[in-house]
Amino acid sequence: MNKHQHIPEEQLEEIERFLQHQMSPKETQSFLLRLSADAELEKSTNEMQLLVTGIQEASLQKKLAHFHEDLSPVSNIKKRGTATIITFKKALVAASIVGVIAVLGWLFLLKDTKEESLFAQYFQPDAGLISAMSTSDNYEFDRAMIHYKTGNYSAAIKTWDSLQTINPNNDTLNYFLGSAYLAKKEVGKAIPYMQKVSAAPNSFFVKDAHWYLGLALLKQGKKKEAIPFLKSSDHAQKDKLIQKLNE
Amino acid sequence: MPLTTLTNNSKAQEQVRAIENNDEITLKIFYQNNYPKVEKYVLENGGTTDEAKDIYQEAFIAVWRAIQLKKFQPQTETSLDGYLYQVARNKWLDQLRSAKRKSIIPLTDGINNREEVPDVSEWEQLQINSIKANLLLLGEVCKDVLARFYYHKQSMRTIAAHLNWTEATARTNKYRCLERLREAIKNNKPNLE
């Protein structure tokens, strides 16, 4: 590396194509033959490999800080049954709407808004699973989980949907498809998935599915249908929510 | 779960290809999945969270580098995770052995069982460090062009469009930037061999 020999642009691009696996098998074979016979070419190729690695490494190092910053939400995975309630900005908006409508005495709409408001107050998207690429059977599932956890619900749905077509009864897929649709507030699409998980008594997700199904039904204004599911969930806030619904 | 279908070996190959191509999501998953175990090890062996982070990032770069330079080819995804853990652990053991740390004693699994793992040569590491140091001396545009082309694998057309150049200009400028980098390395580190 310390002798700076001239590498013509054309040759440099050829070396780059070799290093980046952009050559056809035939080209690669012919390049390798030349490499073994041409010491200068070999030297240039080795130099380029280190240069490319060094340039890339400088970029990667900058990325690591971001990977680390994002670590908390990924590593502090939800401990099931202990999720806390977050008052979303949306809840405040909904609450203020309720206030205005109450003043107007528009009772019918008030009823709907109260339920919506409670949904907004009590709904928090499932935190997701650890994306254990090393242990999971499916790499695509894990990639989609990262999308989910970074709020890119549509991308997650796209992947999980294609996996669900092959595994229609997989409770994990159904649960997270439902969760992703709920996080997008597409309640109508979320409900069938949550219903499927709710109907599988042995599923690890069954209690959580009850909670989310109850909330989804609540958002649709179906309070009577929602309450039994909320009751059979094991969510820490279920009694409080049910009490508010009964007020 | 279980979901479908890929064999361990093809998954490992896919993961390696993605890492070679600097696929952001793969790198991030790989980084984030393996950090907790290393942090636990460092904390249990006299280190702090900051030290765990530093050691882990060094190890992560070392593993990425070994993959780029074909020094390590995992047979399964777990072997890649295991490799990263071992590299991090070795780095922490080396740090503990340093004079500053000699007073710290108990290790959860013994200081003497440092396992050798495949690595790039010391000479290659020096070269790469020199490249990175000299890269800093280039202008912002050159750094940007080289990072886009080599790290982000952007096409010349994309780079040209981004910088409002023609494709031919982008190609020439990339070549010139690389030549400047080579020249800087030659001038600043003449006797590394």
Features of the shown structure:
heterodimer, A: 247 residues, mainly alpha, 13 helices, B: 193 residues, 8 helices, 68% helix, 0% strand, globular, disordered N terminus
Question: What do you see in this structure?
Answer:
The complex is a heterodimer of chains A (about 250) and B (about 190). With about 250 residues, chain A is mainly α. Helices cover about 70% and strands about 0% of the residues of chain A. Chain A has 13 helices and no strands. The radius of gyration of chain A is 27 Å and the shape is elongated. Chain A starts with 8 loop residues before the first helix and ends with a helix. Mean pLDDT of chain A is about 80; it is low at about 75-90 and about 105-110. Chain B has about 190 residues and is mostly helical. Chain B contains eight helices and no strands. Chain B has helices at about 10-20, 25-45, 50-70, 75-95, 120-135, 140-150, 155-165, 165-190. The longest helix of chain B is centred in the C-terminal third of the chain and has 22 residues, at about 165-190. Chain B is globular and about 55 Å long. Residues about 1-5 of chain B have low confidence and may be disordered. Chains A and B meet through helix 3, helix 4 and helix 7 of A and helix 1, helix 2, helix 3, helix 4 and helix 5 of B.
As residue ranges, the low-confidence spans of chain A are 73-89, 105-110
Largest interface: A-B, 49 and 63 residues
Unreliable parts of chain B:
1-6
**Cα-atom radius of gyration of chain B:** 20 Å
Give the count of helical stretches of chain A: 13
Distance between the termini of chain B: 53 Å
Mean of residue pLDDT of chain B?
86
